[in-house]
């Protein structure tokens, strides 16, 4: 199991290292109403010390920086951090960059006032460990804001979307369900305070090319989408003309939890 977990993390490092610049400039990651909501949901004070886990292009860290004294942006992939820093340095001098595994954070207990993790946990092999680590490094009363793609509760739809993501990106592990996340929150001593759901619509040609490495891989993703039955097509709003796929929609969950005092 440990070897399998390490293999997954190596795939993540390879994937994000190869495509670091794409993740910084990706409209999916760089824009979105959720980024504007981060300060309001977290209610940071000027002396706050915040942590952004699996920062990727650093978009959440950038949104937090004007509202906190210090922001620590962590990522498993050094090149991803290096790329994010290059883009963020002109905007925020109070962001510090640390290479770190989300499931084994290199920080002391009760360090941070707030923690965020955005569009990343579907790459984590042990999300329950990640949630426990978040709870450990948060101060009592500290807040955790999670944003990620989620799987529908219906098994057929869950299987479909996770197969889709895996075909498109071999570093994908699983989009988890809200039911799974809430259990992990409770086990870690985090209480759900607020949540919001949204449908994210992707321009398919851009979305599929961000992570694929060959025309053959794109054909496999195409075939999976085009094989969907009507219920699945409707749920994910798969739009195509003459087998030319234009767009699809995936579920996203934004959740705010608080560590027990």
Overall outline: globular
Order of helices and strands: HHHHEHEHEEHEHHEHHHEE
**Which percent range describes the beta-strand content?**
25-35%
CATH level-two architecture? 3-Layer(aba) Sandwich
CATH class: Alpha Beta
Total strands: 8
Q: CATH topology, anyone?
A: Rossmann fold
Rg from alpha-carbon coordinates: 18 Å
CATH homologous superfamily caption? Vaccinia Virus protein VP39
Number of domains: 1
Q: Number of helical runs?
A: 12
Overall pLDDT level: 91
Spans of at least 5 consecutive residues with low confidence:
none
Q: Separation of termini? A: 34 Å
Fraction of residues in H or I helices: 40-55%
Largest sheet: 8 strands, mixed
By secondary-structure content and strand pairing, the structural class works out as alpha/beta
How would you portray this structure in words?
The chain is built from twelve helices and eight strands. The protein is α/β, with parallel strands linked by helices. It has one domain (2-152, 172-199, 252-259): Vaccinia Virus protein VP39 (Rossmann fold), CATH 3.40.50.150. Strands 1, 2, 3, 4, 5, 6, 7 and 8 form an eight-stranded mixed sheet that branches. The mean pLDDT is 91.
Characterize this entry briefly.
The chain is an alpha/beta fold and 261 residues long. Helices cover 44% and strands 26% of the residues. The chain has one domain (2-152, 172-199, 252-259): Rossmann fold (3-Layer(aba) Sandwich).
């Amino acid at each position: 199991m440990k070897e399998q977990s390490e293999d997954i993390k190596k795939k993540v490092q390879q994937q994000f290292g190869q495509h670091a610049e794409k993740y910084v400039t990706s409209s999916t990651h760089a824009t979105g109403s959720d980024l504007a909501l981060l300060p309001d949901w977290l209610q940071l004070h000027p002396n706050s010390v915040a942590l952004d886990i699996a920062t990727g292009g650093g978009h959440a860290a950038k949104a937090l920086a004007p509202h906190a004294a210090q922001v620590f942006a962590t990522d498993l992939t050094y090149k991803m951090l290096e790329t994010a820093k290059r883009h963020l340095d002109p905007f925020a001098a109070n962001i510090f960059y640390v290479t770190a595994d989300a499931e084994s954070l290199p920080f002391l207990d009760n360090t941070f006032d707030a923690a965020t993790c955005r569009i990343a946990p579907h790459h984590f092999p042990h999300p329950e460990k990640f949630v426990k680590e978040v709870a450990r490094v948060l101060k009592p009363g500290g807040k955790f804001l999670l944003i990620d793609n989620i799987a529908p509760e219906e098994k057929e739809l869950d299987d479909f979307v996770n197969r889709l993501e895996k075909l498109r990106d071999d570093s994908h592990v699983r989009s988890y369900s809200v039911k799974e996340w809430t259990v992990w929150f409770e086990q870690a001593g985090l209480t759900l305070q607020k949540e919001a759901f949204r449908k994210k619509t992707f321009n398919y040609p851009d979305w599929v090319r961000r992570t694929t490495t060959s025309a053959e891989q794109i054909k496999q993703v195409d075939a999976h989408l085009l094989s969907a039955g009507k219920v699945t097509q409707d749920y994910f709003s798969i739009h195509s003309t003459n087998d030319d796929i234009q767009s699809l929609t995936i579920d996203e969950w934004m959740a705010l939890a608080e560590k027990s005092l």
